[in-house]
Amino acid sequence: MFRIPLRVRPKLLLFLLAFAWLTVSCRSPQIGDEIIITITADGATSEVSVAAGSTVSQAMQTAGLATGKLDRTEPPLYTVLSEGDNIIFTRVEEIFETEQRVVPFEQQVVRNETLPKGETRLVQAGVNGLEEITYRRILEDTVEVSKSAVKTIVLNESLPEIIMVGAQSSFTPLNIPGTIAYLAGGNAWIMEGSTANRRVIVSTGDLDGRIFSLSPNGEYLIFTRKSKKPASEEINTLWSVRTKNLEPKPVYLQAKNVVHFASWIPGTNSVAYSTVEPRSTAPGWQANNDLYRVSITGGGPRKLLDANSGGVYGWWGMSFAYSADGRLAYSRPDEIGLVDQDGGYLKPLLEITPLNTHSDWAWIPPITWGADGKSLYFVSHAPAPAPVTGEESPFFDLSATSFSSEATVSIIDSTGMFAYPSTSSVKPEGRENSYQVAYLQSIFVEQSETSRYRLVVMDRDGSNKKELFPPIDSSGLEPQTPNWSPGAIEGQAGDFIAVMYQGNLWLVDSENGDAYQVTGDGLINGIDWN
């Protein structure tokens, strides 16, 4: 054990006492001592004496200043104070106020080729809307520093003023079977009996063109309308209208966010549709890949297929197609198959090499049933020579699978990704029925994503292929599904096919390629014919 010699102890003791005195004389104020700090609050500055070691919060209490949850101090409340520190106290107040605002109606001008040029007609009087806005105001020391809208409630929706302006067409009228519905300027029109017999059936000006489909008998039309809510909350809503009514009134089908598919269920007054969930990020939705059924005569939607991942690139979505006898096929980026509508599950038939678009969209193989229900036509993703990978191949073929022979064959090579096959009605031919297939052929086969297309017709087995429209020296068609007439037109060689070209409706004879322009306003972006 270490021992300090006796003669050293007095000197050490004196040293320790001197060190202790020096430490005491240099130390900060101890708890119990007072320090002076300055507080600036409510437009005045004052000095306050507080115990050493106090925090800003304790100093505020000493000064009799209560702090609210939004109030702010500099330095913060938890800061330990020192002699001479200054506290700046800012009172923060949050106020919510509501006010009503009139929403002026918009004016929409619709060109109508059934009116003489220059003549105008008021279709719908405009009505101002009314909305209630809740604002959040922030005041600092009674001075407003911010004001923002936090909630908006539509009390009364505005109605647009719709004015019809005559733009009478000089095109020769054609007699037509069935009903042609077309979408122009956000409104739905129909032609019946003749291309000169036209009338508007939905004049809201907000049809978005995602869904636009006539019932098989042409008596009803389903369509989607843009939602008035933000796109991140609701994309659109699904509606129906009876085309035969003199004053058609749209009916909401209690369905929303329908982007890829809605179609009439054969033999019923019901519609099947699939939904997505809106998103603020591209592409604007996350597909549910589900399926619902709703009757246009009443009753709520009924689920046919549960939401699912949708396979590769399933976030984009999937599509479906009904046969004439009610069977249902599905198509998604990596697969084609059938839907068991009773069991509510998918039965895969064919694997598809998914296309890597390197973008915020995905390619869904176009599909359609043969008119006799014995085959399924589809666009397949064809391989490319090395070193291009299968998912990046620019080649696409038109193929078909037979349910009679269970064989799948490629019918036309290099059609392009947007060939959109469509079949005519069945016609007796010898001992069996026959039909034709129309499809689009890309002009630049290796750039079919951006290429224009030409309308081609062939027999169901790929023979007798004829390129019809537009002429070789003209620009091609935008991707679309060709629409066959429901029957022959008197005095014409073959069935007609309706297509959109440069914003107008054209009818093309499937036999000789004779083409007739029907509209001239350049506003058409959707058609159907039944």
Please explain how this structure is put together:
This protein is mainly β and 530 residues long. The protein has three domains: 32-90, Phosphatidylinositol 3-kinase Catalytic Subunit, Chain A, domain 1 (Ubiquitin-like (UB roll)); 94-113 and 120-156, Resuscitation-promoting factor rpfb (Resuscitation-promoting factor rpfb fold), CATH 2.20.230.10; 169-529, TolB, C-terminal domain (Neuraminidase), CATH 2.120.10.30. Helices cover 5% and strands 46% of the residues. The chain contains two helices and 42 strands. The chain starts with 8 loop residues before the first helix and ends with a strand. The model is unreliable at 21-28 (pLDDT under 50).
Based on the model shown, name its key terms.
530 residues, mainly beta, Resuscitation-promoting factor rpfb fold, Neuraminidase, 3 domains, four-stranded antiparallel sheet
